[in-house]
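Researcher: We're teaching a course module on how sequence relates to structure. For the next exercise, students receive a sequence and then see the predicted structure as tokens, so they can try to spot secondary structure elements on their own. Here is the exercise chain.
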Amino acid sequence: MDKQILIQIAISLVAGNKGLLAMDESNGTCNKRFAALGIPQTEAYRRDWRELIATTPGLGKYISGAILFAETIHQKKKDGTLIVNEIITDGIVPGIKVDTGAKPMAGFPGEKITEGLDGLRERLNEYYKMGARFAKWRAVIAIGNGNPTRACIEANANALARYAALCQEAGLVPVVEPEVLMEGDHDLQRCFDITDQVLLTVFDQLYLQNVLLEGILLKPNMVMPGLQCKQRASVNEVADATIQCLLQSVPAAVGGIAFLSGGQSGEMASAHLNAMHVRHWSKLLWPVTFSFARAIQQPAMSIWRGEGNNKHEAQQGLYHRAKCDDAARRGEYTSAMEKA
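Model: And here is the predicted structure for the students to work with:
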């Protein structure tokens, strides 16, 4: 492990006002989104969709890194060249999702543990040779019915830390993603308390596994009420709670923070990120940016709908969302940008 190279990669991923594009949906998740829009659920259409993203003109102006799925890093464009090479050519750093999904946790109904540590060292070395310079592992923490339990939080935190250590050994920057899910009727304070507990546990495990904090990125959820909670929170309340939570649970040494969108609309995710910078920029201990998936992709997918004639307009939609998120990171996003 070359610590300085890891730090340089982490810095490059959060440099300027850029952020990460998460295009690492599993085939099953991608197919579900295709089905909702009447798009055939085949490898060829997944390839066309990912090629559309990778060939969006100028995307590298706002996107520093792209998280890929295993199928995508091996996938070729229609002309026979690798999609990952297109990403690199645009100045975007390729990353790779390496967990194998969240599975039911034995003995703990309603809770999940993320798997994928078996054989991970070998897979990381292979992905490094293919051009990946960072990786991602997602843990999911659900609130409700007495959950989450301490056992679930600690098991997932330990897996995240072991993954992160293996990544750094292989020369890849680990993106550590402990996601407290939005589903449920919990209020803002409950989300705050659980997110705080999860992050403190994750960093305790990262410390125990000798993970270099300057060479990681944290990909947390924003602190928000559950989707079924009747008491909604304003944009400013979400921004305030999120930053307060991070300030008391995330060490200053961490290389950067890149938020997941967690099912928010593109406009809402941009508004929340913008408010964090407008209201708390002077307090931030780390670069704070975005690592959105649906919040960037969904508008473009809704335009494309699997039709080649819609490709250019869909790419404009993707570029627009990335531009809005770049503005949000600068604290300059407004709803007027959506009308434009």
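Model: If you want an answer key for the exercise: DSSP finds 13 helices and ten strands in the chain. The first strand starts at residue 19 and ends at 23.
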